[in-house]
């Protein structure tokens, strides 16, 4: 298939990358870029690139900024998915993105840890969650041909541990940031009880490790 590791360009894409790489730990930022590339490969694999709902720039915004709530811009006043969605929406509005598209990106980020919901809320939500999932080893066969080049360009650098650290640190700041049955709340409670989370244990057996 015709595929490139080139990322979208322009003021909005540059602002999104700047926000990510200046506020997130480098392993998490690299994960965010890989998530976009994997989401794009997933779209190609499933024949979605010509779909009327497919928008590469919005997919880039949602996938690259999906973990802003685990970065330094987040205050830990709500669950990290929601804080990240709010931060991304603010950036999009500053770049005069239409409100309907802002809402689509907000939803994709807010639901990216919600299995069974994201997959039913449209193509952008589906691909965003799918790209993130692939970087955790889910459906890794879809991107097998390109995975070595993507990891060479954007290495993992102990991504899972770094991301869990960031989510747990913010979840510990307030009860609103760690509600029961949320990812952040669950990870915080696992860390406090066991010192390690199931997500970290699972990474040991994923196709690409941590």
Automatic annotation (TrEMBL):
<dbReference type="InterPro" id="IPR006674">
    <property type="entry name" value="HD_domain"/>
</dbReference>
<feature type="domain" description="HD">
    <location>
        <begin position="28"/>
        <end position="119"/>
    </location>
</feature>
<dbReference type="InterPro" id="IPR003607">
    <property type="entry name" value="HD/PDEase_dom"/>
</dbReference>
<dbReference type="Pfam" id="PF01966">
    <property type="entry name" value="HD"/>
</dbReference>
<protein>
    <submittedName>
        <fullName>HD domain-containing protein</fullName>
    </submittedName>
</protein>
């Amino acid at each position: 298939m015709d595929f490139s590791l080139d990322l979208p360009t322009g003021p909005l894409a540059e602002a999104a990358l700047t926000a990510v790489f200046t506020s997130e730990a480098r392993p998490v930022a690299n994960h965010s870029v890989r998530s976009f590339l994997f989401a794009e490969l997933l779209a190609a694999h499933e024949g979605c690139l010509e779909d009327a709902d497919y928008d590469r720039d919005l997919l880039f915004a949602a996938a690259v900024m999906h973990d802003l709530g685990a970065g330094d811009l987040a205050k830990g006043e709500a669950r990290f998915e929601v804080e990240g969605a709010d931060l991304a929406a603010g950036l999009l509005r500053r770049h005069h993105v239409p409100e309907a598209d802002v809402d689509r990106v907000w939803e994709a980020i807010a639901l990216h840890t919600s299995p069974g919901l994201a997959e039913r809320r449209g193509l952008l939500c589906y691909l965003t969650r799918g790209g993130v999932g692939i970087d955790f080893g889910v459906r890794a066969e879809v991107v097998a041909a390109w995975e070595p080049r993507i990891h060479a360009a954007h290495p993992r650098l102990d991504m899972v541990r770094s991301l869990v650290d960031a989510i747990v640190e913010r979840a510990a700041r307030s009860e609103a940031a760690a509600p029961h049955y949320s990812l952040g709340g669950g990870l915080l409670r696992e860390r406090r009880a066991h010192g390690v989370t199931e997500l970290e244990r699972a990474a040991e057996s994923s196709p690409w490790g941590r």
